[in-house]
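Ligand: adenine. Inputs:
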Amino acid sequence: MRIDVVTIFPEYLAPLDLSLVGKARARGQLDVRLHELREFTHDVHRTVDDTPYGGGPGMVMKPQPWAEALDAVVASGPGEGAVPTLVVPTPSGRPFTQELAQQLAAEPWLAFAPARYEGIDRRVIDDAAARMPVVEVSIGDYVLAGGEVAVLVIVEAVARLLPGVLGNAESHQDDSFAPGRMADLLEGPVYTKPAEWRGHEVPEVLLSGNHAKIARWRREQAFVRTLANRPDLVARWERGMMDKHDLKA
Ligand code: ADE
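Predicted complex:
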């Protein structure tokens, strides 16, 4: 997969050299290219923002540098009409979920446009949408100082779904939120050696070797944790079970 990120803070994305994403890049599974937005300005101050029309606090990112940067990203692609899917992190976007991560992981090419200040002039998004798929994405109901951290979140969630990136091909199957066996339930607690530590014991069932019992215990634990932390997901899970077994509430 190829990923382009246009930003005024390329240094903010240094963690993309580390760990899982860094290894995927080193192995050639992920081709990440960072672009400095200010390279696409034409004034001595390398200005990327201006005051908002209609008034209000803060500054808005100017359309011209963004448009030229995105044009350059498209032009650096494989050609023959190939365009990236443009991901615009914004608190006003659609929620980032495991399902959206899976959809993005199926794309060959993503470009990210993380904003600073109050956001990017809307015409940049509308203009891009006429040429390429655009998805505005929020990573949660809070406001960050800029979209770069959201890019890190989205890239990591997507990268670990790419074929061959995780060591064990099975290891994201049981993830919290992954569609499938434990759909809609959070993952339960996990333990490793030693069996007793500071007087706390590993639940006996996990040492029993009885795989059916262990699976049932894990489902129960997932349910208990989901009920405590995400009752909204339990309600969704129950609706799913009702539908699956064609029951009426
Ligand atoms: N930029 C600022 N806040 C954000 C959020 N919650 N999600 C995505 N991008 C953002």
